[in-house]
Amino acid sequence: MPTLQIIHTPAPGKKMQHESLTGLDKDRVIAIVEPVLRAHRVDGVELIWRNDGRGMLLYLTVERPGTTDPGAGVSIDQCADISRDLSAALDVAEVLTGSYRLEVGSPGLERALYKPEDYARFAGRTAKIKLKEHIEGQWVVRGQLHGLDEQGFVVIDADWGRETVDPALIESGQLVFEFGNKARNKAKARRRAGAGSVARASQRSK
């Protein structure tokens, strides 16, 4: 089955792939975040506002444009710099009220996959896909990604063979870290050294 490989080279600082900002003025928050991302030449992956049991948290994950190695090139120091600049911008805009914390990090080695382009960009890596409808009696497909075919379907080597999945049938997807893979072990070592780890950044109180 032919597979179409797509090279994804987005402009730095593009709009977030995934946003969950319930209770906030979404457009205002994003308008503040995006210039900070552009200034630091990173892409936004997730922007989440939630109560994590310790109070309100604004959680932002970032990555290098077009990277095929999750977490590569994003250091704790850079996350701290982004957090500092974003915190200052949020304070000036007064878009968040009350006490909250801001955390900035990378999406990690088991990065969530939000768009069809993600499945193309991370071709060659192992992923787990949860389905809205079963395929071959299975609600979860796990295997090596092979990009997208001509119809834009996700191509993956499942346990029962190569399968194509309509993106409309995907409930969620994520990369899977495999300890036995030498390349991923190197990535794990980088993470221990700090690259790609979450930076617990500023704690704000208004």
Question: How many angstroms separate the termini?
Answer: 57 Å
Helix content: 10-25%
Helix tally? Answer: 4
CATH topology call of the largest domain = GMP Synthetase, Chain A, domain 3
- Unreliable residue stretches: 1-13, 182-203
Q: Which CATH first-tier class of the largest domain would you pick?
A: Alpha Beta
Number of domains: 2
What gross morphology would you assign? elongated
User: Would you identify the CATH H-level superfamily of the largest domain?
Assistant: RimP-like superfamily, N-terminal
| Sheet of most strands | 6 strands, antiparallel
CATH architecture descriptor text of the largest domain: 2-Layer Sandwich
Question: How many beta strands in the DSSP annotation?
Answer: 11
What does this structure look like?
The protein is α+β, with helices and mostly antiparallel strands. The chain has two domains: 18-109 and 185-204, RimP-like superfamily, N-terminal (GMP Synthetase, Chain A, domain 3), CATH 3.30.300.70; 112-176, SH3 type barrels. Helix content is 25%, strand content 33%. It is built from four helices and eleven strands, in the order E-H-E-E-H-E-E-H-E-E-E-E-E-H-E. The protein has helices at 26-40, 76-93, 116-121, 182-193; strands at residues 18-20, 43-51, 56-63, 100-105, 112-113, 126-135, 138-148, 154-158, 161-165, 170-175, 203-204. The radius of gyration is 18 Å and the shape is elongated.
